[in-house]
């Protein structure tokens, strides 16, 4: 009976760690959004989450929030991700835990980062700490999916997003469009949700055709949060400087052929790619080097289908509107066995897929 109660306490406290960590979505990247709680005799006496990038880690904030530090030696620290053991922008959290006299630590999952990878747990155990690992492991892996994908697959977590008509078209036939005006498929509620998603991820990508047809800004305007890095695939360097995606309100990275690479301007920079090599692996390599751990693909049918055909995606979010086009650009197709959840978003249907 004691063991069962103990397990329930572990799960309850780890669940609180995940709740705290979610508050950092969009702010801590490329660092993981970690949560931590300090528990004394079954009661939380301190809690914290990872500060915006460059700031204190969750363990530091949780320990700092404890009013009576004398209780730490009799407390248990719960943390969703293995405490770090190396110097980065901040000192090692494992050293702080040892120094504060905490002798019991419960960890959600190990940190796969090469500078940690079990070293934090080893440091704690060497100092005499009792360490438990693997509490709510499945939930923790889902919570840290961006960070884990970046560390384990050496690329960003890739989210495909598009809106399609009720009869499966991504865009209407040109005869149905008004010149110089966007053609909205999704509802205002869905449009606001998309801006919230943009604020949660590090980058957003479109191709040349999308910029030429729609002139998108790719910024966060209907939600609170930072603008993502705008990534534009423009291999032939066709896009004009006055395109909205090149405005100075946010950073933009343009991928062009090496033989066409122009000079950077404003907040726009250009990176050359080898046109004789596959584009998407080059893209993932460039983003990995730039520490971009998540990206939304908002391109057109061709760009989206390239990611799908190569299996290079982790999640897809698809809005289906109420209007029928009868003719136009056919929306990309995904395996139906990967549907995870369907819900309403304003007047639209939102379908989520996970490529697992």
TrEMBL record:
Gene Ontology molecular function = 5-amino-6-(5-phosphoribosylamino)uracil reductase activity; diaminohydroxyphosphoribosylaminopyrimidine deaminase activity; zinc ion binding
| Residues binding Zn(2+) | 57, 84, 93
Record-linked InterPro entries: APOBEC/CMP_deaminase_Zn-bd (IPR016192), CMP_dCMP_dom (IPR002125), Cytidine_deaminase-like (IPR016193), DHFR-like_dom_sf (IPR024072), Eubact_RibD (IPR004794), RibDG_C (IPR002734), Riboflavin_Biosynth_HTPR (IPR050765)
Q: Where are the transmembrane segments?
A: none
Lineage here is: Bacteria, Pseudomonadati, Bacteroidota, Flavobacteriia, Flavobacteriales
Q: What does this protein do?
A: Converts 2,5-diamino-6-(ribosylamino)-4(3h)-pyrimidinone 5'-phosphate into 5-amino-6-(ribosylamino)-2,4(1h,3h)-pyrimidinedione 5'-phosphate.
The record describes how the cofactor is bound as: Binds 1 zinc ion.
Instruction: Cite the entry's keywords alphabetically.
Output: Hydrolase, Metal-binding, Multifunctional enzyme, NADP, Oxidoreductase, Riboflavin biosynthesis, Zinc
Q: What is its EC number?
A: 3.5.4.26, 1.1.1.193
Which organism encodes this protein?
Sediminicola luteus
* UniProt similarity note: In the N-terminal section; belongs to the cytidine and deoxycytidylate deaminase family. In the C-terminal section; belongs to the HTP reductase family.
Q: What is this protein called?
A: Riboflavin biosynthesis protein RibD
